[in-house]
Amino acid sequence: MGRARRLVQGAGNTDPDAMAIDSAKTRLRNVVLVCRKCSKKLDGGFGPDGNHTLKKALRKYLKAGKGRKATLAVVHTPCFDICPKNAVVAVNAARPKEMLIVPTGADLFEVKARLGLEDDRRLKPVLIIDSDAG
Predict the structure, then answer these.
(1) What is the reported pTM?
(2) Helical segments of 1-134, H only
């Protein structure tokens, strides 16, 4: 008898075909939901050359991995019923109260910041020149 079936039967359930609820570990820290309908309407418009969907451009820009080992997931979702013109709706699943309307050609650095995402890349240090030294 399988582990799942033993768990269900041990819980007082008499149905031998019932499945137990199980979980899987993941490294995900953020999940970004992107409207599939908006993406299809635009057929691109993001990234350095403007030929990627917002989903693909964010995945490349943020170097999102694949599967359970990734720290970021960017996924298409059904329509949010906002339907902006020449833009795509995106939301960070950790902050569902703030939906972003991202216009075509938007700067991905700004999109990342507005979604509240971090990408483990270090920013270049700023050189400060002290005019009093010397």
Answers:
(1) 0.73
(2) 3-10, 36-42, 54-61, 108-115
